C-alpha cells in the first residue's frame, strides 16, 4: 500500500528550465533591454545570508547569545555561449564610466515541467563587476563561454501572480512635518501655532 504522506509531496523544480532578464534603468546606445535577450546558459549565486552578532552573557559560560545582523548577498554569476552580441562587455565598460547610471533590475524565473513560471527571484540594483572571456584551446572544439559576475542590492523570492516582492528584505521610511500659523487682528489679537511631525519606519 503506498504511503499517503509521500503522495502529498510536491515534486521539486528542475534546474535546466529558467530565464534570466536584466533591464537597465538608463540603457546607453548599444545596449537594449533585456540585456542579451535573456540568453544565458548558467546562473549561480542566488544567495542571501544573515551575519549573526554573537556575544556571551556574564555569569553564563555555557551559553552564547546570537542576534540577527545585517543581510548580505552573494555575487551572481552568469554564463553564456559567446556570440557577436557584446552587450555584457559594453555594460561593464559603461559601469566604469563616472556619472552614469548603469544599474539594472533583474529577474530569474524557474520554470515547471510544463514550461510555465514557477518561482521568481527578483534582483534589485544590479551592477556588473567582472567579465571573463572564454578559455581558448586549439585542441578542443568546444563552445566559447563568456562569464559575467554582478552584485545586487536586494533579493526577493515570489510566486507568479503574487503582488509585491514576496519573501525578501524591504524597508520604507516616511517623514511628514506639518505646521500652521494663523494670526487675526482686530479689537482682540489672537494667534495660534500648530505643528506636527511624524516618522515611520516599516520593514
Overview of the molecule:
The protein is mainly beta. It has a single domain (11-175), classed as Pnp Oxidase, Chain A (Roll), CATH 2.30.110. It has helices at 4-7, 87-96; strands at 18-24, 42-44, 48-56, 64-73, 76-81, 104-111, 117-132, 145-151, 154-158, 167-168, 172-184, 190-202. The longest helix has 10 residues, at 87-96. The radius of gyration is 26 Å and the shape is globular. The two termini are 48 Å apart.
Q: What descriptors fit this protein?
A:
mainly beta, Pnp Oxidase, Chain A, two-stranded antiparallel sheet, 2 helices, disordered C terminus
- Following the backbone from N to C, one meets helices and strands in this order, namely HEEEEEHEEEEEEE
- Estimate nothing, just give the exact number of structural domains: 1
Q: Major β-sheet, in short? A: 8 strands, antiparallel
Rg computed from alpha carbons, rounded to a whole number of angstroms: 26 Å
Count of individual helical segments: 2
Q: What percentage of amino acids are in beta strands? A: over 45%
What fraction, in percent, of the residue positions are helical? Answer: under 10%
Derived from helix and strand composition plus strand pairing, the structural class reads: mainly beta
**Could you say what the CATH architecture is?**
Roll
Blueprint of the fold:
Blueprint: H1 4-7, E1 18-24, E2 42-44, E3 48-56, E4 64-73, E5 76-81, H2 87-96, E6 104-111, E7 117-132, E8 145-151, E9 154-158, E10 167-168, E11 172-184, E12 190-202
Antiparallel strand pairs: 1-6, 2-5, 3-4, 5-8, 6-7, 7-8, 7-9, 9-10, 11-12
